[in-house]
Amino acid sequence: MHPATDALIVIDVQNDFCPGGALAVAGGDEIIIRINGLMEAFGTVVLTQDWHPANHASFAANHPGATPFSLAQMPYGPQVLWPTHCVQGSKGAEFHRDLWTDPAHLIVRKGFRPEIDSYSAFFENDHSTPTGLDGYLRSRGITAVTLVGLATDYCVAYSAVDAAGLGYTATVLEGAARAIDLNGSLAEAREKMRAAGVRLEA
């Protein structure tokens, strides 16, 4: 068992990010057995869930002429335009059926504001609008977080960097995460995580 001050944060293990989904991460479903096993070792377990309205600004379909994976300028900076995914109430937004959800103490939904995307479990992409997770963890006495899930180079990395910036000891278990790796995004994310003081473990 991990100390009571440690929390497990499981990022976006949802149908649309698993094989067959709208924004599938290769091997995304292969990590679920390990994640389920990890839940038993932590006294605090948090799941995050991408939860977009259909008119979300990060969807390429909502920008006439835009192609998925192109970049657009938003008020908060550059934004990848994604295929439509994890639409509120859709099958794709549901957690993968093999993921244990009963052990979760908190489910954080993110990306529900139409005008701003939210990769991190802690902040939206303006890096200032909080999700409330930090307050929850602090009130539980948590000082360290272990992050797993999808995708290593986006939501997992952003969450880990923010966790470290907020003063948590942050560890990413790369063997319990999978990456999209868009134009070298995995190498870049690993560099950013290391620079922020995030521990990368197998």
Describe this structure in words.
With 202 residues, this protein is α/β, with parallel strands linked by helices. It is 20% helix and 23% strand. It is built from 4 helices and 8 strands, in the order E-H-E-E-E-E-H-E-H-E-H-E. The strands form 2 sheets. Strands 5-2-1-6-7-8 form a 6-stranded parallel β-sheet. A two-stranded antiparallel ribbon has the order 3-4. Strand 1, helix 1 and strand 2 form a beta-alpha-beta unit. Helix 3 (152-165) packs parallel to helix 4. The mean pLDDT is 97.
Largest sheet: 6 strands, parallel
Question: What share of residues are in beta strands?
Answer: 15-25%
- Computed over alpha carbons, the radius of gyration is 16 Å
Q: What structural class do you assign from the helix and strand content?
A: alpha/beta
Q: What is the general shape?
A: globular
Let me know the average pLDDT: 97
Helix-strand pattern, N to C? EHEEEEHEHEHE
State the end-to-end distance.
Answer: 18 Å
In spatial order, strands of the major sheet run 5-2-1-6-7-8
Low-confidence stretches: none
The number of helical runs is 4
Relative helix content: 10-25%
Beta strand count: 8
